[in-house]
Amino acid sequence: MATVVHISSPKITDSYEPCLEYCPKCETTYTTRIEQTRGNCWWITFVLGCVFFFPLCYWLCCASSKDTKHFCPSCGSLLAIRQGGC
């Protein structure tokens, strides 16, 4: 018996908030579960802010400075990414 494997890379989105995305594994549209993580841009801004311009670090508290990953709430697949900052 053959098993069908869905291999897809996450798409790029503009949403920092949960949104409707199609999950190819579940074959259904869900409102995504999000996680915000510190990406490369966050760390670069942090280092430059600490070394040269300390008030720049205030921006790092905003959600827009972090990467937002959208996951399927049912199976946990990564569906979309919103890269923050730069």
TrEMBL record:
Ranges that cross the membrane: 42-61
SMART domains in alphabetical order: LITAF
Protein name from the UniProt record: LITAF domain-containing protein
Keywords: Membrane, Transmembrane, Transmembrane helix
LITAF domain: residues covered: 2-84
Classification via Pfam families: zf-LITAF-like (PF10601)
Top-level taxon of origin: Eukaryota
Signal sequence coordinates: none
